[in-house]
Fold this sequence. Notes:
By secondary structure, the chain is of the alpha/beta class. The protein has helices at residues 10-19, 34-44, 53-56, 73-82, 97-110, 124-135, 154-158, 172-188, 287-302, 310-325; strands at 2-4, 28-30, 63-66, 86-90, 114-117, 141-149, 193-199, 211-217, 223-229, 239-244, 247-252, 255-260, 265-268.
Amino acid sequence: MGLVGLGMAVTPHAEAYRDLANRVTVAAAFAPSEARRRAFAERFGFPVVDTLEAILDDPTIAAVGLQTPPNTHLDLVCRCAAAGKHVLLEKPLEIDTERAAATVAACEAAGVTLGVMLQHRFRPSGLELRRLLNAGALGAVTGGQVSILNWRPQAYYDEPGRGEKGRDGGGVLLTQGIHTLDLLTACLGLPEAVHGLHRTTPVHVMETEDLAGAVMRYPNGAIVTLTATTAAYPGFPERITLFCEKGTADLVGTTLRVRYLDGREETFGEAIGAGGTGADPMAFPSDYHRALIADFVEAIREGRPPAVTGQDALEAHRLIDRILAG
């Protein structure tokens, strides 16, 4: 693997690669900033290079992990694909759905594997929720509620480009909420009707939305409501609650509790606190990054799609577009 982009988002990636040293080798890491390269090398011990070409031109590097700002993804993915490198891309795919689709298409045209870092799918509680739904253990979903109640202080948005359309593409939905919305689409698919609202609250000075809400109707008639914000102090675990024919599934952060109509109760997963939904966006373990990276590596070796493909990630982008459209 080669790693490109060594800012805040790289930490759980690097920790995961260090844990997976017997399965994948980080051969080189690059960032335009010399100081950032030096700090990364000192912290994690991986070799660094001073040009992107040193990674793209290295025939021993099979894949590239990109942890760069969203507005750089299309160009960098195209360059990686042209060099025959598989790509593991930090979310979101790009700053808008058109560019996101072009990013996915570039990898498909080049015949390289594209995986997307939407690691919530690898939380054991989320995996169990999908298993129960697919097995019919809960019966049909009749309704639900989704809460993405994050907190970010103004200092977070004072960083250059944060919350701006030109760099990030969007606010709470595309930057924070995409993880939960991706898991929701993995469970339920896309709704057939969406009524959304969004705004920027007085809590933040930023270009994009820090509060959004929606009512969504799914093809089977289920109605699910959504609230997403980065203005909910001090930040709370994300929550997906699904009301079903045979009981209720309540996924709170990393813990799933299922209450059946016949009186049975089941709990899966362990609580880890707010999990990065508070003032420190990196306050979460690297376990789920590690599981996704391990799957991506094995997918390349086995010649199969990874668990989270570019087409999968596009579904969350499409849902966000519909919420913002009102």
